[in-house]
Amino acid sequence: MCSIVTYTMRLLTLIILLILLSTPLLSTEDIKIGRVKYSGGGDWYNDPSSEVNLLNYVKINTSAETKPIYEYVDLKSDELFDYPILFLTGHGNVNFSDKEADNLRLYLENGGFLYIDDDYGLEPYIRKEIKKVFSNKEFLEIPFTHPIYSIQYDFTSGPPKIHEHDDKPPKSYGIFVDDRLAVFFTVESNPSDGWADPDTHNDSPQLREMSLKFGTNIIIWALMN
Questions:
Q1: Cβ proximity of 40 and 88 under 8 Å
Q2: pTM here?
Q3: Contacts 24+ apart (CB under 8 A), 147-153
């Protein structure tokens, strides 16, 4: 009887393993990105094709199920928590109200992820506003050994240089919540411009491919951590 029970348990274990192995690694359904709408005058809405193209690329090249649409979200809204990933970009001023800062902090402390891409001119403003969200935290430069640079594609030499801004090397910074990278911020890199439709910035196919691969790393890392 013991041997029959043992055999049955092993068979059940094998069946469970087969089911798990046949399930996509990233099984989150309809992964979508929320474009952060902010006040202050910056063009938060620019290049609406960016997220659509990136999510299509992720869907084709990974096991993640995505919802390739452009959606924006107000930080004051509870809809913020419907998005596993937020994306913020622009060229100018950013301003968070106290309510927006509090809501964003709650979102990030409960597993949310924010990717910020400086489209040129954004950096001084977003640094100031993030201090409203985390008064006791600073942006830390993220070393190229961090797994976000290699989780899917190899960027261990650093973020791609998609657009030239001030003739400086591209860098990434982050805010950590309980040792988890919750905010990822690229400067002098501008990968999100490379996600946009080809005729938007006339980037070469090679640059666009690099930017989409780097964006894929960001998406996958955010979903798995």
A1: no
A2: 0.86
A3: 147/221, 148/172, 148/181, 148/184, 148/217, 148/218, 148/221, 149/217, 150/217, 151/217, 151/220, 151/221, 151/224, 152/62, 152/213, 152/216, 152/217, 152/220, 153/213, 153/214, 153/216, 153/217
Give dist(CA 48, CA 163) in Å, integer.
Answer: 18
**Which residue type is seen at 174?**
G
pLDDT of residue 69 exceeding 60:
yes
CA-closest candidate to residue 31, choices 92, 107, 112, 85: 85
For helices 49-61 and 205-224, what crossing angle results, to 10°? 70
Specify the 3-state DSSP secondary structure of 41.
coil
Choose the weakest-confidence range: 151-155, 158-162, 213-217: 158-162
Kindly give the pairing relationship between strand 171-177 and strand 113-118. unpaired
Domain boundaries 24-224, corresponding CATH code: 3.40.50.12140
Q: How far apart are CA 219 and CA 213, in angstroms?
A: 10
Domain parsing of the chain, residue ranges: 24-224
